[in-house]
């Protein structure tokens, strides 16, 4: 504002100079009409007053404002009552300019108002005083008074075909935004006029109109305005992010993404929220690998916090990019920061998809032990735990089958997993039945083979008796070994899941279901 006040001063001095020169140049008809509307007949200074002003004017040119102010004070004290209207208005106009340069805005305001009230100046100079008064009221935060004065000045200027300074429109729009409550709708026209009437682009003008459009949610006008702003000031980071946001609000997500990406490549996007928005755009537009790479790089640069929320996002991006090996340790790190089992449940799912069945089992057991999950997730956790356990079983691992079945039984308690769990139980029961049927068949086959071998041994002995020959030591050893096997087989009896012939399964059936919390060593396994 200080620069504007200096301009006020020079405008007043220019008016004084014109008066001292007593210019008689003819005015256009419209200007003459405006000039005749106000002020007295005399538009020349009294010679004695003019001589005093000339001295004080030289002090103003030398920026000796203190001495000039003293001179004007003395002039008003000595001749104030005797001065005609034109002299009085001119003297107060100039003293007001001196006070502006001394940053005595309240005093300047009073002097300009006195000069106006004296009604001694031509209409154009009176109107210029109204402009100064309105600007000073704005400076002193008397916004409603400034609005009234600026509107009056603009109206008078238009009537007299005087070009309206774009700064006047800017101040008027700014004043509308400062009153309580702000009147952004009334600020639109003067803010637009300020930009259309300016010479060189002024950043403050654009910022004001951008604010007005934003407050009115007028993105249809705000978006092209921001496009101009990023072209005029390409290094202004906030303009790029605002333009991206405006595109997003209008549903132009591809444009919003492109703008943000260009700004990032130019090194203008550094805020965490803006970076995360760009990263999520990569995911939205089917480029999760690039999003994950960017997120990891910015985390390592400490531009994005390595907290649980962002670790989850990173893990999801790696999973979307089908980089499960990279996703798993990130999700495990996030799970370690959690107080409930939700993240361990997610970790278990990823590990299961990556066929890391033992690690998946541990993660899912941790999820169930920690709890705090929604009912549907708990049911799914039991279902996945049964799957992870069963996937580790060999062709005769009845104990593992039983442990998997117990997990599926627990999964049946939840409506969302009941049907799938029941299907698994039916399948496991069929596998177990087939296993024991096979065991029984194998036993009977071995028993029949023993009977055949014993009959053969008896036949061989009769042949040796007829030959009057003794069995060799090797034959005797083989017969005794085989007879021992057959005796043991007969004593054991046919296999049954209810007998001690399957100690592992009986142990599993009698043991309570439990989940072992993943320890630090197993947590590092992938």
Please name the defining characteristics of this protein:
26 helices, Tetratricopeptide repeat protein, 0% strand, Serine Threonine Protein Phosphatase 5, Tetratricopeptide repeat, 526 residues, signal, mainly alpha, TPR-like_helical_dom_sf
Report on this model:
By secondary structure, the protein is mainly alpha-helical. Helix 9 (166-178) packs antiparallel against helix 10, helix 21 (375-391) packs antiparallel against helix 22 (398-411) and helix 22 packs parallel to helix 25 (503-510). The longest helix is centred in the last third of the chain and has 52 residues, at 415-466. The chain starts with a helix and ends with a helix. It contains 26 helices and no strands. Residues 1-33, 36-41 and 500-526 have low confidence and may be disordered. Among the domains are: 1-164, Tetratricopeptide repeat domain (Serine Threonine Protein Phosphatase 5, Tetratricopeptide repeat, Alpha Horseshoe), CATH 1.25.40; 388-523, no CATH class.
CATH class of the domain at 1-164: Mainly Alpha
Q: Uncertain runs with pLDDT below 50, 5 residues or more?
A: 1-33, 36-41, 500-526
Q: Can you tell me the overall shape?
A: rod-shaped
Number of helices: 26
Q: Structural class of the secondary elements?
A: mainly alpha
What is the CATH topology classification name of the domain at 1-164? Serine Threonine Protein Phosphatase 5, Tetratricopeptide repeat
The pLDDT mean sits at 84
Order of helices and strands: HHHHHHHHHHHHHHHHHHHHHHHHHH
Alpha-carbon distance between the two ends: 65 Å
Region (Disordered): 485-526
Keywords: Signal
Biased composition (Acidic residues): 503-526
Signal peptide: 1-31
């Amino acid at each position: 504002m200080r620069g504007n006040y200096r301009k006020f001063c020079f405008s007043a001095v220019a008016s004084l100079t014109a008066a001292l020169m007593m210019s008689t140049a003819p005015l256009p008809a419209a200007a003459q009409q405006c000039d005749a509307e106000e002020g007295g007949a005399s538009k020349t200074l009294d010679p004695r007053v003019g001589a005093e002003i000339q001295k004080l004017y030289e002090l103003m040119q030398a920026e000796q404002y203190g001495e000039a102010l003293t001179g004007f004070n003395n002039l008003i004290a000595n001749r104030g009552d005797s001065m005609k209207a034109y002299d009085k208005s001119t003297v107060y106009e100039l003293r007001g300019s001196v006070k502006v340069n001394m940053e005595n805005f309240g005093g300047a305001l009073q002097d300009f108002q006195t000069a106006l009230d004296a009604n001694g100046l031509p209409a154009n100079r009176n109107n210029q005083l109204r402009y100064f008064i309105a600007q000073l009221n704005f400076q002193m935060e008397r916004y409603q008074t400034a609005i009234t004065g600026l509107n009056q000045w603009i109206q008078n200027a238009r009537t007299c075909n005087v070009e309206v300074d774009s700064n006047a429109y800017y101040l008027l729009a700014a004043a509308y935004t400062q009153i309580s409550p702000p009147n952004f709708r009334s600020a639109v026209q003067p803010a637009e006029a300020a930009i259309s009437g300016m010479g060189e682009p002024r950043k403050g003008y654009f910022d004001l109109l951008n604010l007005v459009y934003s407050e009115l949610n007028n993105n249809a006008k705000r978006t092209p305005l921001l496009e101009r702003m990023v072209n005029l000031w390409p290094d202004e980071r906030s303009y790029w992010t605002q333009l991206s946001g405006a595109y997003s609000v209008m549903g132009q997500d591809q444009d919003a993404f492109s703008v943000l990406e260009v700004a990032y490549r130019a090194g203008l996007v550094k805020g965490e929220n803006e970076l995360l928005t760009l990263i999520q755009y990569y995911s939205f537009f089917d480029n999760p690998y690039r999003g994950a790479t960017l997120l990891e790089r910015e985390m390592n640069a400490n531009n994005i916090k390595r907290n649980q929320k962002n670790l989850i996002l990173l893990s999801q991006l790696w999973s979307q990019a089908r980089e499960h090996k990279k996703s798993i340790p990130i999700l495990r790190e996030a799970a370690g920061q959690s107080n409930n089992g939700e993240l361990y449940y997610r970790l278990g799912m990823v590990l299961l998809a990556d066929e890391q069945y033992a690690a998946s089992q541990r993660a899912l057991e941790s999820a169930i032990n920690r709890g705090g999950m929604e009912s549907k997730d708990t049911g799914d956790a039991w279902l996945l735990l049964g799957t992870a356990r069963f996937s580790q079983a060999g062709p005769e691992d009845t104990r593992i089958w039983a442990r998997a079945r117990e997990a599926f039984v627990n999964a049946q308690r939840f409506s969302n997993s009941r049907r799938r769990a029941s299907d698994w139980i039916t399948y496991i029961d069929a596998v177990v039945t087939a296993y024991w049927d096979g065991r029984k068949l194998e036993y009977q086959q071995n028993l029949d083979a023993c009977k055949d071998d014993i009959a053969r041994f008896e036949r061989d002995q009769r042949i040796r008796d007829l030959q009057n020959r003794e069995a060799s030591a090797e034959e005797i050893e083989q017969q005794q070994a085989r007879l021992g096997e057959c005796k043991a087989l007969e004593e054991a009896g046919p296999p049954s899941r209810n007998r001690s012939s399957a100690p592992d399964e009986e142990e599993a059936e009698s043991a309570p279901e439990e989940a072992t919390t993943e320890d630090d060593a197993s947590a590092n396994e992938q």
